[in-house]
Amino acid sequence: MSKLRLLLALSALAAVAVAASAAPALQTAWQINAGDTAWFANDNNTRDLAYNAVTDHVLVVSRTGGLSVQILDAATGMAASPSTMSVAGVAGGTFPLSHIDVADDGVIYGANLTINAVTTAFTVYRWASEEATATVAYSATGEISGRTGDAFAVTGAGASTTIYATGSANVSIEVFTTGDGVTFAHAGVIGRANDDHRLGIDVLPGGNLLISDPGSQVQEIDGAGSVLNSVATSEIDNLAAPLSVGSIGGLTLAVVQGGPVSSFGGTVLDITGGVAAATAIGVIPASGNPNDPAAPNANGNGVGAAELDTTNQTVLFLNTNNSIGSYFSNAGGVPVELSVFSEN
């Protein structure tokens, strides 16, 4: 079956209100199951990926068999050339590298995980390109407090780049800014009453944040930490965790780990009309166990990642301990009356 543009399929779906339980399953463009490679296993050691629109590559952080950042061709899932980024000099923390994200200019940032930033430095690394050696963009002990590095987001480019980071039991979202696009300083915190943001942060158009956590609803907050809107429980249940926000064509989409029932690995939400009007328009099954796709491997930490591949118009989704894949919508998952599509 020919692959259809995610934009066209989701644009058609977004034209009607579709309950989350009825949202069609996305189809698989490619998928890597745990155990298929030496760097991805059922061991909780692969927790984040990022999409680099400048190179059309997927960057995956793995600690299986030693720390690495794998570079995959976003269209095929095959190893790119080079197949890994340099991790020379990346060290320290509970995990030396836990999360990764890409700024609008293609500069790559990654963060370690520290369970106590008062005694162990929280460090952000910067790669000018996928071929570059990492430099330290920020590192300090005692300047911020609490566990930091479970959630990480980058927005902007150059001297306008802003970094957000937080962690489990941390009621603050740490904010880092830069004057030169190379070195960063702690610019303050977004305070919350609890850690309902601990596994998911991304930036909405206009600058507010979308946050998520397995014990809380997906929420929009402002720079003061106030909740402005929430995604309705009819569209995504309270098991939502890592998330990503992006735009394809005229649509603003959010991809969230979790779904209306436990059999879903992720949900695609149309948030073009705002977070309060979010509509579930596609789901990603929690597959990845080739021996029994209906019984995925346990992911007790609730970790993983989602991204929007704006070049190939697909959803990139990491279901930790299970699978890494690229997913799209096609006519087989769309009601006939909505089939306004163009094949490629």
Describe the SSE topology.
Blueprint: H1 6-13, E1 27-33, E2 46-52, E3 57-62, E4 68-73, E5 79-85, E6 95-102, E7 108-113, E8 122-127, E9 135-140, E10 151-155, E11 162-166, E12 172-178, E13 184-191, E14 200-203, E15 209-213, E16 216-221, E17 227-230, E18 243-248, E19 251-257, E20 264-270, E21 279-285, E22 304-309, E23 314-319, E24 323-328
Antiparallel strand pairs: 1-24, 2-3, 3-4, 4-5, 6-7, 7-8, 8-9, 10-11, 11-12, 12-13, 14-15, 15-16, 16-17, 18-19, 19-20, 20-21, 22-23, 23-24
First and last CA, distance: 11 Å
- Give me the secondary-structure category: mainly beta
Low-pLDDT runs of 5+ residues are 1-8, 10-21, 331-344
Question: What name is given to the CATH topology?
Answer: Neuraminidase
Strand order of the largest sheet: 1-24-23-22
The name of the CATH architecture is 6 Propeller
Major beta-sheet overview: 4 strands, antiparallel
Q: What portion of residues is helical?
A: under 10%
The total tally of domains equals 1
CATH class: Mainly Beta
Beta content = 35-45%
| DSSP strand count | 24
Task: Give the full name of the CATH homologous superfamily.
Answer: TolB, C-terminal domain
